[in-house]
Amino acid sequence: MPKDTKYVAKQPDENGWIHYSDAENEVWRDLVAQQQPSVERLAARPFLDGQKKLNLPTDRVPQCVEVSKILMDFTGWRVEPVPALIGFSQFFGMLADATFPAASFIRDRESFGYIEEPDVFHEIYGHTPLLTDPRFAKFSQAIGKTGTQCDKSEYSWLIRLYWFTVEFGLIREGNGIKALGSGLASSPGELDHSVNQPSVERKPFDVVDILRTPYRIDINQPIYFVLDDVDQLLAVAEHDLIADIQVAKSLGLYAPTYPSKEKTG
Asked: Exposed site from 92, 126, 155, 257, fewest CB < 10 Å?
């Protein structure tokens, strides 16, 4: 996540509604129109099923209060608007409380194809469909609870597990591989890259392996991890993740498979 942002968080009114302009609603409409055909081809069944359950509006930005009402019926989760940049401590604490923190702003036209920080399109379109699935909801809450219990120095280890599953996970379906992660579902370019790019390394799902794998947020990933079934996440949710972090730390990080980020200025 970038250290600063040009965007300003939008504040909800007394009823929890955020008032988006016509231009902002049009950005949402056009993002959905651009992304949905690819999602229907390349996204995993749990994500597509979640979309059907939510039935999000396509012509305007959905409101957290209306999404929360649906999620509560399926998994007991809710969505709460937050500024784009929140710390790991707050992030993990909210997940532990079955609350998904959603950035309230939406990208402008200049950043239509790619935005480094999460916006409401990524948060609502990308994340909330999977939170209708009790298995994914339990896994996300387990990540949060672990984050509230581990040392702050271990946040960077734990967030890799979130990154390579919730954000950029893949899953086997039939004889192929489909995109599961929310970052893939909301990304025009990386969705196809993750599933179809021949140069990508797609590794079997392994928690310690994931914890040891560095990543960059500003490039298409060179490595993805592939679940055989979402039920694997249930097993992780019931496992001692702090112990897994200790094992990963003792083994150390893998060498990055991507180029170092060039410094500017």
From this structure: 257
Beta partners for residue 201, in sequence order = 223
CB 131 within 8 A of CB 77: yes
Residue entry with tokens 């025009």: 188
CB 148 within 8 A of CB 93: yes
How far CA 85 is from CA of 5, 56, 100, 240, in Å, comes to: 8, 25, 14, 28
- Strands of the sheet containing 201-204, edge to edge, are 176-179, 170-173, 223-227, 201-204
Question: Which domains can be identified in the chain, with CATH numbers?
Answer: 22-251 (1.10.800.10)
Nearest to 207 by CA among 229, 236, 169, 249: 236
What does the alpha-carbon distance between residue 59 and residue 29 come to, in Å, rounded to a whole number? 5
CA atoms within 13 A on the CB side of 61: 26
Give me the residue label for tokens 């099923």: 49
Q: How far is the C-alpha of 88 from the C-alpha of 159, rounded, in Å?
A: 9
6 class by beta-carbon count within 10 Å (0-12 exposed, 13-18 middle, 19+ buried) = exposed
The answer to whether the beta carbons of residues 229 and 171 sit under 8 Å apart is: yes
Q: Tell me the chain's radius of gyration from C-alpha atoms.
A: 18
Helices (H), 57-106: 64-74, 88-96
- Residue 152 gets which letter from DSSP? G
Residue positions counted in the chain: 265
- Written as six digits, the tokens of 25 are 């609603």
Q: How far apart are CA 234 and CA 137, in angstroms?
A: 9
- Token readout for 191 is 């969705």
Q: Return averaged pLDDT per consecutive 10 residues of the chain, 265 residues in all.
A: 68 94 97 97 98 98 98 98 88 98 91 83 97 97 98 98 98 96 93 96 98 94 97 94 98 92 49
